[in-house]
Amino acid sequence: xxxxxxxxxxxxxxxxxxxxxxxxxxxxxxxxxxxxxxxxxxxxxxxxxxxxxxxxxxxxxxxxxxxxxxxxxxxxxxxxxxxxxxxxxxxxxxxxxxxxxxxxxxxxxxxxxxxxxxxxxxxxxxxxxxxxxxxxxxxxxxxxxxxxxxxxxxxxxxxxxxxxxxxxxxxxxxxxxxxxxxxxxxxxxxxxxxxxxxxxxxxxxxxxxxxxxxxxxxxxxxxxxxxxxxxxxxxxxxxxxxxxxxxxxxxxxxxxxxxxxxxxxxxxxxxxxxxxxxxxxxxxxxxxxxxxxxxxxxxxxxxxxxxxxxxxxxxxxxxxxxxxxxxx
Length: 328
Ligand code: LMR
Known about the structure:
With 328 residues, this protein is of the alpha/beta class.
């Protein structure tokens, strides 16, 4: 009996040694913005929570600022399994689904609350699973903010003021159509290349949130920023679906909980960070911020909204209608 108990003890000890010696699962989370942005803060919060909930079982490594991959390479890296998590802007999924293009339609969502209502509704939730057959699992939506137009011109007031100007855009056909509707020249380009392209005059302007404009210093190489709020920059946190499905149940559960909490945190912070960075741009005194009258905004909308009809068949009228409904 005594020998049996001792044997059990030895077995238990060696088992626990094996378990504790097991290496944590390394989760590489790559993204393209700075740490002090909504996405940067969300990624760091996810790391903190995941490692707290799953001590010794996971290690989350966050790589901000296109340090590891620029946004024209990161999706391939995820599909190849070189990294495990990404949070690309919803404008960068063209190649994988046309449905997410709903988020790029100009002046569709009136604010981030409307976006939130849409994402929590059945249509928004379903979109998280819309790329599974391409090997991509959506885990959560994160917000950044409303887009503004920055340019090398001293002022934009009316839509005709951008005629002929070159604008950097994200990799999205809808955004291309949007600038063509304004008779401007859109140019697709990775986020990491924008500052230099603005500085050297390769492009005259770009569209982005206050947070991205400030943290990438675009306001230092642009003359003005027009507060158009004409669109949104939002993210989907995604995983390689084979990798996600292969995780042990307790790990998947812990990571899902960490993701939900980090999403709530990041989405609450997004508005605040954008307001803060707008003020930082005002205080820096470089690019001047111009606001538009309601009458001017009507003109911008009129010029850009035909893009909705142009992409209705690709996106699906049901999705566009659900987004419109979320505004009320
Ligand atoms: C951009 O490319 O302008 C943005 O999508 C960058 C980002 O991830 O916020």
